[in-house]
Each structure stands twice: as structure tokens, then as C-alpha cells.
Design a protein that fits this description.
6 helices; elongated
Length: about 170
Amino acid sequence: MSPNGGSQQEQRDESEAERHDRNYNELLQELRVLQAGMQILFAFLLSLAFQSRFESVTEFEKNLYVATLVTAALSAACLIAPVPFHRLVFRRGMKDDLMRAANRYVGAGLAFLFLAMIGAVTLVLDFLLSLAWALSISSVLAVVFIVLWLVVPLVSRAEEDDDSKDDV
């Protein structure tokens, strides 16, 4: 419900098909931002193994690298998945199915991107500093990501769902 008591759809005066189209276009805009960051990180990780200094990494760093590379690949798979899904259901009147699936894909892609980013930072900091510093700094960064990506939006959503705000 909006602060004025009407639903978003009532205020927009749009059909269900128009709402699905608008939601899909908004999702595509979000994906453009996500995919750029994910692709840069994935490319960086793919090139790391071919650097001459990569031979000097520890067993822990090698395992962390593999886990980070795999989570980056999974992030790419999830964040790109709405496009082939759309292509396969195009013109079949399945926009609602597309949006449900795309929202799940993006949620999973964000989770994998989070793991890949924290893994990449941990890997680089362990290589440059020490494991203790890498884990400390990466833990702080993980908390920052969780607060910005999860806590703040959930708090905002909970505040919006508060019935006492409907009269404001």
C-alpha cells in the first residue's frame, strides 16, 4: 500500500501485462549494473592463474582461488539466466513465470557475487599481507555488504509494511 492508502498498481493505472513489462525492464536495468561488476571480477579471476607469481601461492590460496572462481562463474550463470529464460518463453504469455524465475536467479546471483567478491578480496589480501589481516579485513567487508545489500533494504521494507504509516 502507498502512503495515500492505494496500491502501487492503482496509482499507476496499469494493466497486469504493463506491470509485468515495467517490472522486467526495471530488472534488466539492475542486471546491467550487476553484470558489469560480475564480468570484471570473473575476468580478473580467470587471468590470475596465468600470472607468473601464481605459482607461489599456498595451498589455502589455491583452494580459495578455486572456490572464488567457481562462485564467480555461478554468479555469472545466475545473473545471465533471465536472458535465455526470456528468449525461450518469448511470446508465450509467460511474463509472470519469467519474473518469478528471474527474481530467484538474481537473488542467487547476488549471493554468489557476494561470496566471490569476499573470496577475491581475501585471496589478494592474504597474498599481499597475511591470512590474519586478510580474514579481518574481509570479515569487516562482509558485514558492510550484508548491511548494505540486506539489512538496510529489509529494514526499509519492514518500515513500509508498518500499518501505522498507511495514514501518513
